[in-house]
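Quick bug: CoA-transferase output formatted oddly.
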Amino acid sequence: MAADHVARLADGGLVVTARATHDPAPETECTVAEVMTWAIVRRLEDIGVAFQGFASPLPTVALRVARERTGVTHLSASGAVDGEPAAMPLSTEDAHLLEGASAQFTSPEAFDLAARGGVDVMFVGGAQIDRHGRLNNTVAGSWAEPTVKFGGGGGTGSLLGLVEEAWAWRTEHRPRSLPADVDFVTATGNLSYLITPLCEFERRNGELQVVSIHPGVSRERIRERTGWDVQFGPIERTPIPDADQRALIERVDPNRVRRSGFETLSALE
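Here's what came back:
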């Protein structure tokens, strides 16, 4: 079968879906998308309940993989509890995420669960994420005269202070998306972790600090592409997933939706 397509079984038949539309490197086995996915999987090893919000394809894949490895309870924005779709859809609101789910919940029930302390980790995204871990999903520029209007924060303004931890992710690492201070504070709260195509951050002493650097990335590149004077804690090198780990990721996500949102992806050895 051509490399830009993937086959899966559904309703007793063979379905062929296009892969190239959201896979910038269809011929490549391992990219930073796989490195980021596995970094999140490793971090989920001791987590009991994790909630993945809208527009979170890479964390969704990581949660599905972690579910198979360690049994973490996966709450999807689609309303599914531990859904087991035959293949990951590109949209995190897709009804296919309800396939195989042990239960279904509503948005109010998700808020109630978080308020009761029942969500250990919530995955969030931000058009801007600053050094304090604050999110902006509202406007770029001033409120009175914005240069860009974003989609809004959804429930993050409430949920970020309710969940035990919030983990953020980005498919780009640039000063405009990681400024020293966001243009508008859409949400602030318990954001403790951020992963980007260059590195992993943890919030320490009120500021995001680099704790792990991805393969082939230098400190100088991180400094150049971060909007504040980034500090480095005790540094690790983010591991490249081995062949078995990559096979598990690919089995869960044959459509490679984990690679969506990246402009380019280089091969990693």
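Actually, after a second look the formatting is fine. Residues 1-29 form one domain. Closing.
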